[in-house]
Structure formats: structure tokens, C-alpha cells
Specification:
By secondary structure, this protein is α+β, with helices and mostly antiparallel strands. The protein is built from four helices and nine strands. Bound molecules: flavin mononucleotide (FMN).
């Protein structure tokens, strides 16, 4: 089963409204949070993907454009890419939709560990340095990494609340993946994160 009803004529996937009614509350999610490195190949539903992306870095205050994760100076410089078997997409949080970037399976390019190629979803957190003005380069790199970490923890807690597996990953060939995703020179990959139904340990 495929996650994405891809319309190659428009390159846009409108996501259903997020639905968060996790069986587990926050305390339970914190107790169950952990990294998983074995995934079943089963696709995630479009509804689940929608809710996950919203939890990761969706808009939670529409009037002011606030997001579910904080960001330094409210730069909101991280773009979340969803790398699926059907292709790679950029999450447009304001419109809550996915924009097709590449109609290719780029999952194997998102990391150097073997499980990344078969995890049904790899998120990639890309910082756009063009949105981070008035900061020294060393501070900028540090803040971009911290902002991505906040998003990654949202994903960890979302996954823990629904018994999904996830692992955030710094082991990424950034040059290779940047080229595969066709990133602009100001865009830098911070972290990647696998998500899927957990497989055997
Ligand atoms: C910034 C960061 C980078 C990480 N990079 C990787 C990675 O590349 N590959 C991996 O398998 N785990 C990675 N991890 C996961 C850690 O190994 C994991 O969180 C740690 O072993 C503790 O296990 P736990 O998350 O189950 O508590 C990373 C974690 C963080 C916070």
C-alpha cells in the first residue's frame, strides 16, 4: 500500500487535517520514548503522515504563524522533508501540504546505516541559512542544530504515544543527500530521522 496519492500533474499532496488522539498521554510517551533501528516495511497512512508532520513542526497558532517546535529568534528556518518510497517531498507547514521535490525513492541516500533504506519514512531536517540573519556562522550552525533537535523530540514523543519506532540520525552523507534533494547553496542538512512500525529487535 502506498502512502501518497501522488498527482504528478500538480506535484502537490494536500494532507488531511491532523488528528491527534494518542492513546498514551504525555507521561506515558516520555516513559516509552526510545530509539528504534528496526522497521517493518509497512507504509504509514496519509492520515498518520499528516498528524506526524504537524506534530513535528506544524502551525499551531494560525493568527501568528506559531509552530509546534520552538526556533531561535523565531526564524523557523528548518524545512522538514519527507522521504518516502514514492518520492521526496518538502512539507509546507502553512498550507499543511507536501510539495514534490523528486519522484524517486531516495531513502537509501538519507543515511549510512542499513535500516534507512527500508524504513517507510525518513524525515530530513534542512536549515535555510538565508532565514538566519545577524548571527555569527558558528552560532548559526549551533542554533540550527538545536532547532532541529526540538523538532526531532516532537517526533520521538509522537511516535512513542502511538507505539511507532523512530531514531534521529546525525550519520548522514550531507553532500550526497543535498545533491540528491537538489538543495540550494544556503540550505544545510542538520539531522535525519527514520519513522515506521517497529520491526523485530
Ligand atoms: C543529535 C543526535 C544524533 C544521533 N545520531 C544517530 C545516528 O546517526 N544513528 C543512530 O543510530 N542513532 C543516532 N542517535 C540516537 C542515539 O544513539 C540514541 O538517542 C542514544 O543511543 C540513546 O538511546 P535512546 O534514544 O533509545 O534513549 C542520535 C541522537 C542524537 C540526539
Amino acid at each position: 500500500m502506498s502512502t501518497i496519492p501522488l498527482n504528478l500533474e500538480t506535484d502537490v499532496v494536500v494532507l488531511p487535517p491532523p488528528q491527534l488522539s494518542p492513546a498514551a498521554g504525555l507521561e506515558q510517551a516520555l516513559r516509552q520514548r526510545r530509539s528504534t533501528r528496526s522497521f517493518l516495511p509497512d507504509a504509514l497512512s496519509l492520515q498518520l503522515l499528516s498528524s506526524l508532520l504537524w506534530a513535528a513542526f506544524g502551525v499551531n497558532r494560525h493568527g501568528e504563524g506559531g509552530r509546534t517546535a520552538p526556533s531561535a529568534h523565531n526564524w523557523q528556518e528548518i524545512d522538514v522533508f519527507a522521504v518516502l518510497p514514492e518520492g521526496a517531498f518538502r512539507y509546507d507547514a502553512r498550507a499543511h501540504r507536501l510539495m514534490l521535490v523528486k519522484a524517486e525513492d531516495l531513502r537509501a541516500a538519507t543515511g549510512s546505516q542499513d535500516f534507512v533504506a527500508s524504513a517507510p519514512l525518513n524525515l530530513v531536517y534542512v536549515a535555510d541559512f538565508a532565514r538566519m540573519q545577524g548571527v555569527r556562522p558558528d552560532e548559526r550552525d549551533f542554533l540550527a542544530g538545536a532547532d532541529a533537535g526540538c523538532i526531532a523530540q516532537n517526533v520521538y514523543l509522537f511516535c512513542a504515544s502511538l507505539s511507532l519506532g523512530t531514531v534521529v540520525r546525525g550519520l548522514v552523507d550531507r553532500r550526497h543527500l543535498s545533491a540528491a534533494l537538489g538543495l540550494r547553496p544556503t540550505e544545510r542538512i542538520t539531522l535525519a530521522q527514520c519513522v515506521g512500525h517497529p520491526g523485530p529487535p
